[in-house]
Design a protein that fits this description.
- Helix 3 crosses helix 4 and helix 7 crosses helix 8.
- A hairpin with a 5-residue loop joins strand 18 and strand 19.
- This protein is an alpha/beta fold.
- 30% of the residues lie in helices and 23% in strands.
- The protein binds pyridoxal-5'-phosphate.
- Pyridoxal-5'-phosphate binds next to helix 10.
Amino acid sequence: MKKPFVSYDKLEEIIARYKTPFHLYDEKGIRENARRMIGAFGWNKGFKEYFAVKATPNPVILKTLKEEGCGVDCSSMTELMMANAVGFRGREIMFSSNDTPAEEFVYARELGAIINLDDFTHIDFLKEHAGLPDTICMRYNPGGDFVISSQIMDTPGEAKYGFTKQQLLDGFIKLRDLGVKEFGLHAFLASNTLTNEYYPSLAGLLFETAVWLKEETGVSVSFINLSGGVGIPYKPEDKPNDINIIAGAVRDVYEKILTANGLGNVEIYTELGRFMLGPYGCLVATATHKKDIHKQYIGLDACAANLMRPAMYKAYHHITVSGKENHPHDHIYDITGSLCENNDKFAIDRKLPKIEMGDRIIIHDAGAHGYAMGYNYNGKLRSAELLLRMNGDVELIRRAETSSDYFATLDVTDFHF
Ligand SMILES: *Cc1c(COP(=O)(O)O)cnc(C)c1O
């Protein structure tokens, strides 16, 4: 069974101060997981995890990860600005963007971030608008299907990202001739993978590509970025990934392919978002309405604007009724939000204990791509974010939006709200 990281009593204490809905994060879980992750890759001198800011763009969370030794992976102007405000500098920032506006390249250059180019044409675009830095990373898209043990993991051939293999070769030569001194290679081929084989398979592909590029051009990459994609067990019956097994298997292919071909100094980077934060955040809501028509519905004070994944991907998020963990799960409910969209359902046909109005509903694994994907549809306001500290204190790390925030950008009109 999935257990919430916050007890009934602690949660009620928090709710006495902050009204639901809110996102709650667990500092202890975040730090322990970051240490496990970085420890697992300790065999690689220069290893760095660049946390994908888009997953949980909160400066207090970023600072916590920075204290554990992480860098950040940014993909937009505001993410770069947040990284800068938190104190990430130079090579602690990876800029993995696509369809990139010129001013974002300029700012990334100002910060000294490592720029990860998404396309061959971006070489000239970057040169023209921001000038070429000494270090450049390139994103690879091998096309076709990405298969592990005869199972199709994803279809890079349908993905908008990255250089083809030939473009990678041409890009290396072009950048080398333009004076770039240091190179990296990146690929992101499957999302939310629940197999210890994803990173090792991806690593094998990237390592072989690095050896090929060296043979063809004489240029050695100095780092390889395995990007994101290591998943988390959203369902109680899912088998979690084991980061020690993953890192050990990446080491094996590293030695077999890179070390054996004179590339034994390559640094390994990752850009995980979900794996770093997903399990260490939850959305807390209150049951406010009960409806008995063709099905039984429990309405919450949260909605898809607070957590979009179920509506957008039909994603499963485990639900605990706080304090009723051990009650019989003998009711079947759809758990809904208040949007005027029938897909605004956190759960469909879910077996749960009998829910009373006022019960606290904990929606698990919302720590990554949760608050971050929030939006204002139906005039809904974004919730607060809270951090449960190691010592049990709770800190407000982002206040809830108010109606003034919602109306702020209408200050160009004559209306007053
Ligand atoms: C989204 C993203 C990540 C993080 O992905 P997760 O699935 O959260 O690990 C990393 N790198 C890039 C370029 C991304 O777009």
